[in-house]
Design brief:
The chain is mainly beta. It has one domain: Electron Transport, Fmn-binding Protein, Chain A (Pnp Oxidase, Chain A). 13% of the residues lie in helices and 38% in strands. A seven-stranded antiparallel β-sheet has the order 3-2-6-9-10-5-4. It is globular. The relative contact order is 0.20. Bound molecules: flavin mononucleotide (FMN). Residues 17, 30, 32-36, 50-52, 55-57, 81, 84-89, 165 line the site of flavin mononucleotide.
């Protein structure tokens, strides 16, 4: 495959689209779009979120020591883009975007009602990366949309319909078609390969 070198930059696909919700010491809640987010440990269950130090969200997370990562469904692409361009310092993005904060169960930061998957995190550590801070949040609770559960108890990804961000070319996509089951029930994908 012929390739073009892009140099040191941050082009990489796919990235999740999430809305991180937070609350300040004054009780003001905020949301911001974040795609530099991921699961980084199973024991303890941990999410990492990389935030620029200038974000209002970063300031609030430092104040109250918690945040919620809300998965963005494809139907909320416009709202997510908006929350990634405006700061909570200038306007109440929840009201402007018509999104609903509801109380979380273990942390002070709110869940986003319209999101089908909310991950409650307690800030455990922080790594300095130039203008960014990699925040390590221990997952203390997860809320998954009831309608995503099948009768057998498995989860139907179509209900979550996660919005995927292609950083570098600034496009939002949805998931597309399922390609295969990963290793499960003792069966490896590789064994099925013709
Ligand atoms: C798709 C998308 C992804 C983004 N991901 C991040 C991110 O991971 N980290 C970050 O610091 N800013 C990210 N941003 C920028 C912030 O969302 C933006 O600066 C926002 O206005 C910050 O809001 P706040 O000041 O209310 O916290 C992203 C923006 C978009 C549109």
């Amino acid at each position: 495959m012929e390739k073009r070198q892009l140099g040191p930059c941050v082009t990489f696909f796919p990235q999740p689209t999430t809305l991180v919700s937070s609350v300040g010491n004054d009780g003001q809640v905020n949301i911001m779009t974040a795609s530099w987010v991921g699961i980084v440990s199973k024991t303890p269950p941990t999410m990492a979120v990389s935030l620029n130090v200038n974000r209002a969200t970063y300031e609030q997370i430092r104040q109250t020591g918690c945040f919620v990562v809300n998965l963005v469904p494809a139907s909320l692409a416009v709202e997510a883009d908006f929350c990634g361009l405006k700061s909570g310092r200038d306007e109440d993005k929840l009201i402007a975007a018509g999104l609903t904060p509801v109380p979380a169960s273990k942390v002070a930061a709110p869940l986003l009602d319209e999101s089908p998957l909310n991950v409650e995190c307690v800030l455990r550590d922080e790594v300095e990366l130039g203008e960014y801070r990699l925040l390590l949040g221990e997952i203390v609770e997860i809320h998954a949309a009831e309608q995503a559960f099948t009768e057998s108890g498995s989860m139907d990804a179509r209900v979550f319909d996660p919005l995927v961000y292609l950083g570098g070319i600034r496009e939002y996509w949805n998931l597309g078609q399922k390609q295969a089951d990963a290793y499960k029930d003792g069966k490896q994908l590789f064994e099925k390969k013709p």
